[in-house]
Amino acid sequence: MATSEEQELMAKIGSLASKINRHKAQQHNTKFGYHGPGRNRYRNKTLVLNGQSGSAQSVDANAASDSTSPSWVSKTDRHLQLINSAIYEKEAQSRSNAIEQTHRHRQLQRDNREKSKLASFARQNANHVAASSSASAPKFEITVDGIHFHVLKGGNKLVKSPGDVNPPSATPKVAFVGGVRFHRTRNGNLVRHGIVRAQQQLLSKGTCPEGDSCDLSHEVTEERTPLCLHFAKGKCINPSCPYVHAQHSQSDPIKGCKRPHIERASVLRRAGNRSSPEETDDISSDDDFAADSDDIDSDGVEEFIGKDEVEDARFSEQTDFISF
Questions:
Q1: Does pTM top 0.85 for this prediction?
Q2: Where on the tree of life does the source sit, at the highest rank (predicted)?
Q3: How many whole angstroms separate alpha carbon 145 and alpha carbon 25?
């Protein structure tokens, strides 16, 4: 009995083992093909402009491009945009005009603020003196580093007093009067920083920040325009150079040139002393008293300051003396 039960049990075990082996063999023999990476969910997306259909786009693609068809410009402003070229140019032009107008307005406000600061400083720190009988006489007198200056051009320029004996080099290159910056000219006078900046922009960029509202002269003639330094060296390649291109001979008169070809007064004086020791030196033409190359040209600045006929209303009619 036990033998028959053992045989049945062994038969069931063998049948189950054979089923398990067949199932394993089927799993090992199965081969799966490589499908590659997953496809994108979008394909052949097109941009339809002005509500055109797909057939119209295919016809336009095969036909020649029409000259009257609008062109498009891509613009990245926080996000990518596609703008019509005509609208883009109009917006760009209006934006540039607005920026220029804002710059002019700020420049005018800055100039008025500097003039008001200078006038307020003059009224608060002025020492009363006897009024002058001449109507065209300066209304204010300022002392900067021991040098007396007259306030002219509505506060745009400080001119040394006629009796001042200090050389031009004694004037500080940059002086602050009442919080307003002034630059030294070649004659030893002082010019407001705003006037110097406007002059440099008009000559270099060809535009004035104040535009039509500026009361200064904007006539840039050949006599007022400096020579091109690169043209003098034979290396100017700018076809629209704003500076003057002119040939000059060695016999042309030269004024204020810092090149070695100029005959300096000190060299001529030493040569004269060797030939005639009894002659005295000319102290006024010493090199120590000469202006530096980075000083402002007073003759060029006069064209941008304007006439002195109408003074600024912020300055009183009395003659004052300011010492600081």
A1: no
A2: Eukaryota
A3: 108
